[in-house]
Amino acid sequence: LAAGMPSRFRPCIDLHAGRVKQIVGSTLSDDPEVAPVTNFEATKSSAEFAALYAANSLLGGHVIMLGPGNEQAALDAVEAYPGGLQLGGGINPSNARKYIDAGASAVIVTSYAFYQGQLDSLRLAEMVSAVGSERLVLDLSCRRREPAGPFFVVTDRWQKFTDLEVNEDTLKALSAHCCEFLVHAVDVEGKQSGVERQLVEALGRWSPIPVTYAGGVRSVDDLQLVEELSSGRVDVTVGSALDIFGGSLSYESVVAWDAQQALKVASENGR
Question: pTM for this one?
């Protein structure tokens, strides 16, 4: 396989109860009495984070609405950075167009495309007809059922396993219906414990379209590792580790890394 383009940094804005937060994804629950484990709650608004990403020319980031009460904050973010952010969380054919019209570059879908643990081709077709495959990102967030076993897509706040294994056939088939994949490695997400190496490497080998990996990144070395494991084919999101979200990894250093990656793109295009 030839090398891909250099990996890029994709920023994120996670919304919970209308506020920008970083939470441990695997602790989300359907039970309103059970609060998720929160790593960080921001004082800045979603629009302020979006404006920061715009100022740093960061492309293809995502806003995720974790549960109800986030619609206005999500709209504020995409309106503050038109065309610069994808939007996911509770997206369906009846609300998707509204977010695109408000400025989202694409909508991100997981749970709607599945029914009773199976990928539902009719529901997926409804989403494609609502916004077009070029505006649709499929979230294939996944976890292992058993140690060292294959990865399966999880839905409904990452609590329900589907029967869909993340493998080459799956990515090839689904790539006809969307423009990108977003893949959270749920078992390491929000824990700053390092990246899920096997998954990153596999995504780099298997995905015929752009794919963004999220989970466990804690340093610029980890960003570099994603590029090396994936041969530059996988982009990467950093959440809880960033100092803008209460972590120890300098946001400025990550922006600087991305700027260097952009220069690589420019030099390769200039050949």
Answer: 0.93
